[in-house]
Amino acid sequence: MSLITGKFFAFLCILFILYYVLPKKYQWILLLFGSLFFYLNGPVSHVIFLLISAISTYYCGIALSKNKSKTPVVITILLNIGILFVLKYTAPAFDIISYVTGNKMPETHFIFPLGISFYTFMIISYVVDAYKGDINPEKNFFKYLLYVCWFPQIIEGPINRYKDMKEALFKEHSFDFNRCKYAGYRILVGLFKKVVIAGRFSVYVDRVFDNVHGYSGLTLLVATVFYVIQLYTDFSGCMDMVIGISELFGIKMAENFDRPLFSKSVSEFWRRWHITLGAWFRDYIYYPVFRSGFCKDVKTKLSKTPLKKSAMNVIAAISLFCVWSLTGLWHGGEVHYIVWGLYYAVILITSMLLTNKFKKMGKAHPEIFGSKWFGLFQIVRTLFIVTLGELIFRANTVRDALYMIKSIVTDFSLSVGSIQDSILPFTEDNTAIAYGAVAIVSFMALFIVEASLENGKDTFKKHKYINAAILIVVTLLFGVFGESGFLYMAY
C-alpha cells in the first residue's frame, strides 16, 4: 500500500480514530493489527518471511535471557542474512523462470519483500544488543512483532533500535492536539517533497538514464543533478511522512536526515544522510572490525616496523573498506552498486589519511581556511563528489556510468541547440515543461528554507499556517499521486 494513495490515507484516518477511541490498554494491539493489515496488502508470502525473521530473533532473545551464548546469536544472524541474501541477490532468477515457463506477463514477476533490508538490520541489532546486555529481551512475542513490523518504518526505515522504541510503542497515549498538528505538517512537507519535486523529476531522470546514448553531455549532467535532487526529496520526504505518521500515535522515531546538502566534507555528508543506517554500520560493522583479532594482529605487526605511527590509520582504513563494501552490497548485487561503495571507500580513506595535513594547513592559514568563501567551496566540492557518486549509483551499468562521465566532459555545450535538447526529456506532453518548472521552483524554495534552518534561523516558523495552505494547494495541483513507491523501497 503506497503512502501517496487515497486508500492509505483512508486506512490512516480509521486507525487514528480507533487509536484514541479504544481503551488505552489496547492501543498497542490495534497498532499491531494495523501494521499486519498494511503488510498483508502485499503478497501473503512476504508475511512468511517477516514471521520467520521475527520468530527466530524472538526465541534467540529468550535463549539469551537464560544463557549468554554466542551459538544462538550466530545461527539467528546467519539465518536472517541468508534469507536477505537469497531474496535480494537471486530474485531475478524468479523472473527468468517465469519467462522460460511461458508466464511472461510483467505482473507475475517476483516482488522483493517490503522492508526486508530494513527490518533485517533492526532484528540483528536487537539480537546483538541482547547478547551484549544492552537490552532486556522482550518476553511478549506480539509486542516484539509490533517492533519488527510497525508499518511506517517498515517501508524505508529509519532503522530504529529496540531500546529506543519499546517505551513509545507500548505505553498508553492520550490525544495531544499540538503533537498531531506538528505531525500533520511534517506529513504534508514530506508529501510535497515526494509528489511535487521527486515525482516530477523522476520522469526526466528515468528517460535520460534509460537511454544515455541518446543525449548530449549537458542533458546527461542535468539528469544527474536532477537525480540527486530526486533521491534527496524522495527519501527525506518519505522520512518526513514516516516520522509524522508515527507522531500521530505518540511514537517518536529517530531522525534520518540533517540537511546533508550543506555538508562540508563527504564524511559529514554521510553522517547527515540516512543517519540510522550509518549508525548501524558504525556500531555493528566498523567498531567490531576495528576491534577484531585480525586488526589487532595487523596493529601489532605494524608496531614493529617503520609504519608503526600509521597503524591506527591502517586498521581504520580496513574497517572503512569493510563498511563501504557492505554498504554497496546492501543496495544491490549489481556491479555499479559495488563500484559505488568502493568509490566512497577510497574517498573516505583518503580523506582520513589527509586529515592531519589539512588541520595543519588550517592553523597556518586561518584567513583562508576559516573564511566563509572556503566554507562555500567545501560545500560545492562535497556536492560535486556526491553527484559523481550518485551518477554511478543510478546508472544501469558501469559502462553507462563511464559513458556519461566521458560525454559530460567531452560533449558539454551551452549552445542554444544543446539547451533545447536538455529540455526535451520534460516534453512528454504539452504541460510537462510547466510541471518541470514547478518542480525546479519548489526545490529552490525548499533549499532556501533548509539554508535558513542551517544558519539557525527558522524564518518561516511564524508563517506555518500560510506555508501549509500553499503546500496543500501546490501539492494538489502539481503532485504525482498513485501507486508509485519510494526509491529506497527497492533496496
Overview of this protein structure:
This protein has helices spanning 6-21, 27-39, 44-66, 70-100, 116-132, 141-149, 153-156, 162-170, 177-209, 217-248, 266-272, 275-290, 293-302, 311-331, 335-364, 366-369, 372-394, 398-410, 416-423, 432-454, 464-478. The chain has 21 helices and no strands. It is mostly helical and 491 residues long. 35% of the residues are buried.
Measure the end-to-end span.
17 Å
Helix content: over 70%
SSE pattern, N- to C-terminal: HHHHHHHHHHHHHHHHHHHHH
Tell the overall outline: globular
Summed over residues and divided by their number, the pLDDT gives a mean of: 87
Structural class: mainly alpha
Record field, number of beta strands: 0
Hey, roughly how much beta strand do the residues contain? under 5%
Radius of gyration: 24 Å
Contiguous uncertain segments of 5+ residues: 95-100, 104-109
Biggest β-sheet description: none
Tally of DSSP helical segments: 21
Please give a quick description of this structure.
The protein is built from 21 helices and no strands. It has helices at 6-21, 27-39, 44-66, 70-100, 116-132, 141-149, 153-156, 162-170, 177-209, 217-248, 266-272, 275-290, 293-302, 311-331, 335-364, 366-369, 372-394, 398-410, 416-423, 432-454, 464-478.
